[in-house]
Amino acid sequence: MKKLLTFVLLLACGSVWAQDVVRDSVAATAADTADNEENVIGAKPTPRSSRREANVLGAPVYYNQNGSLRGGDTAMPYRRPKHHYLNNLEERYHSIFAEGEVLRGNSDYAFGLNFTYLPKRWGAYGSVLLGARHDYLSVGPALRLSDYDSYLDWQLYGGIMFGGRSTGAEVGLRIATPQHDGEFCITSASMGMAIVGNHAFVTFGASIGVMAAIGATTLLFW
Question: Which of 126, 117, 120, 105 is nearest to 172 (CA)?
């Protein structure tokens, strides 16, 4: 009899405790979903009260092709971080360069073409020059000195030069404009120095666009 009475009392206490737990959970849920408790987990988001809150975390911000903020009152320049995944030298600069080149020295002079292929940081160049006494051929690597955010494309090239029966070396510097209309560059110029067979030479090169501008200027003032 005592065991039965004890079991009934324990069962009644358990029922009362379970009801208290359910009631507390319902009250907490009602409080969490109340609109006036926005800092509680589960609360409803507070509606935006002003348009000035447009640049909250997660809201998109758009820039035009000049890097200025769209919709802004003032044009503020924007530059991507240096290690941004969209920074690509292939998209920023030209890859193919062709220039008319002149070689001049005390012992000889020559005219020809310089061709360079520079897709990213490293590339190669070669030149063929037809001279009064000898013909010249040079070949070697080319290095782009400019980074993605540079305004001009600076390049360094150098290699072996052959002239007649002699062998020497050449080194030069090129400047070009960034890419606007494809991989082929029409606005570039270069200057270098070569030593072949104990004779020193200077070299000058210009692309199609630069030579056309020089020719037009010459005809204008002729």
Answer: 126
Amino acid in the structure at residue 129? L
Token pair listed for 16: 């009362």
CA-nearest of 21, 18, 42 to 30 is 42
What pLDDT band is residue 212 in, cutting at 50, 70 and 90? confident
Return the SS3 of 89: helix
Q: How far is CA 155 from CA 42, 132, 179, 218, in A?
A: 60, 29, 14, 28
Task: Give the model confidence (pLDDT) of 167-197 as tens digits.
Answer: 999 999 999 988 767 789 999 999 999 999 8
Distance CA 4, CA 222 (A): 126
The partner residues of 219 in beta bridges, in order of sequence, read: none
CB contact at 8 A, 192 and 173: yes
3-state secondary structure 9-41: HHHHHHHHHHHHHHHHHHHHHHHHCCCCCCCCC
Phi then psi for residue 210, to 5 deg, are: -70, -40
Exposed, middle or buried, 203 (CB in 10 Å: 0-12/13-18/19+)?
A: buried
Beta-carbon neighbour count of residue 104 at 10 Å? 13
For the range 11-15, what are the long-range contacts, defined as Cβ-Cβ under 8 Å and sequence gap of 24 or more? Answer: none
